[in-house]
Amino acid sequence: MTQQSITPTWNLNDLYSGMDDPKIEEDFSAAEALVRELQDYRGKIATLNPSEMLTLIKSQEALALKSNRLGVYASLLSATNVEVPEVTRFEKQLDARMIQLGKETIFIEVEMAQLPEPKWQEFLNAPELNAYKKTLEDTYREAKHTLSEPEEKILAEKSQTSSQALLHLFSITTDTLMVDWNGEKKPLEEISPYLRDPDKAIRKQAVFAIHAALNTNSKTTPAVFNALIQDKEISDRLRNYDYPEERRFNSDDVEKDTVYALIEAVNKSSHLVERYYTLKKKILGEDTLHWWDRYAPLPKPKKEISPEEGKEMVLAAFEEFSPQVREIANGMFEKAHIDWFPSNKKRGGAFCQFGTPESYPYVLLNYTNDVNDVMTLAHELGHAVHDVLVKDTNVFFQMHPSLALAEIASTFSELLLFDKLLAGDLTKEDKIALLMGQIEDNFATVHRQIAMFQFEQAVHTKRRTDGELSKDQIDDLWHEIIKKPFGDSLVWTDEHKNFWMYIPHVFNWPFYVYSYAFAQLCTLAIYKTYKEKGSEMVENYLDILRRGGSMAPKDNLALAGFDVSTPDFWQNGLKMIEDYIAQLEAELA
Questions:
Q1: What contacts 424, CB < 8 A, 6 or more positions away?
Q2: Cα(390)–Cα(496) distance, rounded to whole angstroms?
Q3: CA angle at residue 376 from 318 to 588, to 5 degrees?
Q4: How many CA atoms lie within 13 Å of 410's alpha carbon, on the beta-carbon side?
Q5: How far is CA 405 from CA 176, 252, 551, 555, 580, in A?
Q6: How far apart are CA 402 and CA 482, in angstroms?
Q7: Closest Cα to residue 124, out of 58, 61, 53?
Q8: Which of the listed residues 176, 185, 433, 525 has the most CB atoms within 10 Å of its CB?
Q9: How far apart are CA 66 and CA 452, in angstroms?
């Protein structure tokens, strides 16, 4: 097959032709007009009939579409023009204008929250509103936890001197932390990469140095953490949330029993972690592995893959699964919606950005011919396929899936490519490297994130029942919970105990990490079913994607024949990880 050249930079003309495109001001003026129209509903929402509510929702959606196009363009432009003054200024000015428009429509959310139960039932059961039923159900669910407009304003104002101030304090005390390193003071962010250094002596040195540096905040950070937990407890109590993680589950539209079934399955599979790290000890030629050896660098596949080769490999893997998936992914190349290569003006990493209902998404890469770069290409194109499929079957407000399902298409696409790579002409060493990377990525996404989640559960619950927690109490909870999945495969020291003190999500976004494990194991379980059933599973899978955010994750997956409320479903995903370990053992035999 002749390889076709790729277009190295993305074309944003589907959005706007440039920062001076007159359509930008036209769209912003249209957004302002919609906001003025919406003002007519102030104080009247409780009096609307279903037809009038439909008109209101469609006006909100029209505003959201204008805001989305403007925001996406500014975001994409900024991603490839980092620290370019005129682009930064353009983005900030646009953001400020959009924030101001958003403030003028907050009353809608507040008035919806105050609707009496009979009015809610009228809207939820009205045939005219059926297309937006899930949107209304989500609003109704949130309404139970929304306060009056004056109370919401008070909490928003007070947050500047409570949670926001505490998070700022955590940020500045952590970001400015200096570590003693070979007689010099170095920022923490410079030393953290040494935790993955090839030299175990340097990894150990980094652990001890970071531990000592974190201890210089041993009074401040635990106090901030305690205060943030108490602040959340107060907010949860005022908003009628019954347990610490309920607000997160409510936001993600998942049920407590479902997440607990996931946790139960993961906790019963810790023998897989121990089994793998016993293997890694053998591969590294060590008699003992310490906890700082968890991230000892893996062998990297030596094979180089050009962008053109990567494109063909991904499209071939997609074609074998579904010609429709290949066709959608190929559209990303044909429309030049991918920005491929590193640049000193470009942000790092990779992402897929939803475009508009009329246009394809956009993908940013930093491609360097590495095998992992091809995996990243498959991952982001999976997101793109998902974004395109939801547009045909959903209103804009219901296109985006819950956080719990948002990574399914991307992870599934990676698995398609992974199997193709593994079955290809790789050397034995490259296959071992691929398998080790896959296994460790799964442990990091599943077992570590569930352990993190359980640490958050334990510390929030204990703070609510016992009051202020000492640093030693928090340290001990962290240490015992995080090391548990590893069994006897690693040696742990007390230096690990304070490493919770610089993990941002523990402070900023409590309880969201379960969603990583949810998406990963869910996808593995679905993929295992595909490998067992073959083509008969394809449309079931694509239908999961097509439904987008039009129903709760549990209901969406149930239509495809999966019961996520049982540990058995999650065990199927864990069986995939076990199969990878068995393949690695076979390669090493």
A1: none
A2: 44
A3: 90
A4: 22
A5: 36, 9, 11, 12, 23
A6: 27
A7: 53
A8: 525
A9: 38
Structure tokens at 233: 């407890």
CB atoms near residue 42 (< 10 Å): 12
CA–CA gap between residue 170 and residue 176 (Å, rounded): 10
Q: Are 555 and 508 in contact (CB under 8 A)?
A: no
Encoded tokens for 179: 């570590």
Q: Name the region of 82 (left: φ>0; alpha: ψ -120 to 50; beta: rest).
A: beta
| Among the listed residues 567, 247, 549, the one whose alpha carbon sits nearest the alpha carbon of residue 406 | 549
> Distance between CA 226 and CA 230 in Å, rounded?
6
- The enclosing H or E element of 185 equals strand 184-187
Question: pTM of this prediction?
Answer: 0.92
- Specify the amino acid at residue 87: V
Closest CA to 205 of 306, 290, 298, 108: 290
Question: Which single residue is written with the structure tokens 């006897």?
Answer: 488
Per-residue pLDDT 10s for the chain (589 aa) are 344 578 999 999 999 999 999 999 999 999 999 999 999 999 999 999 999 999 999 999 999 999 999 999 999 999 999 988 999 999 999 988 988 888 899 889 889 988 999 999 999 999 999 999 999 999 999 988 988 878 888 888 888 888 889 999 999 999 899 999 999 999 999 999 999 999 999 999 999 999 999 999 999 999 999 999 999 999 999 999 999 999 999 999 999 999 999 999 999 999 999 999 999 998 898 999 999 999 898 888 888 999 999 999 999 999 999 999 999 999 999 999 999 999 999 999 999 999 899 899 999 999 999 999 999 999 999 999 999 999 988 999 999 998 889 999 999 999 999 999 999 888 899 999 999 999 999 999 999 999 999 999 999 999 999 999 999 999 999 999 999 999 999 999 999 999 999 999 999 999 999 999 999 999 999 999 999 999 999 999 999 999 999 999 999 999 999 999 999 999 999 999 999 999 999 999 8
Number of other residues whose CB lies within 10 A of the CB of residue 483:
15
With contact defined as beta carbons under 8 Å apart, do 412 and 519 qualify?
no
Cα angle, residue 130 at apex, residues 129 and 132 outer, rounded to 5°: 70
Tokens of 512: 């969201």
And the tokens for 335?
Answer: 């429309």
Q: Which residue has the tokens 């139970």?
A: 144
* Rounded Cα gap, residues 198 and 296, in angstroms: 6
Which residues are registered as beta bridge partners of 338? 363
DSSP structure class, residue 489: S
Structure tokens at 437: 């990377």
Residue 532 neighbours by CB distance under 10 Å: 10
CB 370 within 8 A of CB 37: no
Residue 254 Ramachandran class (φ > 0 left, ψ -120 to 50 alpha, else beta): beta
Cα 445 from chain centroid (whole Å): 11
* Rounded alpha-carbon distances, angstroms, from residue 144 to 139, 147, 217, 434: 9, 8, 39, 48
